[in-house]
Amino acid sequence: MSTEVDTKHAADTEPAARPANTSTPRPDQPAAWRRRRYQVIAGALAIALIVVFVANNVLARQYSPSGAVSQYLTAIQSGDAAAAWSLIQVSAPTTNVDATLIDRASLQAALGSAKPDIRSFAVTQTANADANVVAVVFSYETAGGTKRSTFTV
Question: Fewer CB atoms < 10 Å away: N or C end of the chain?
Answer without folding.
Answer: N
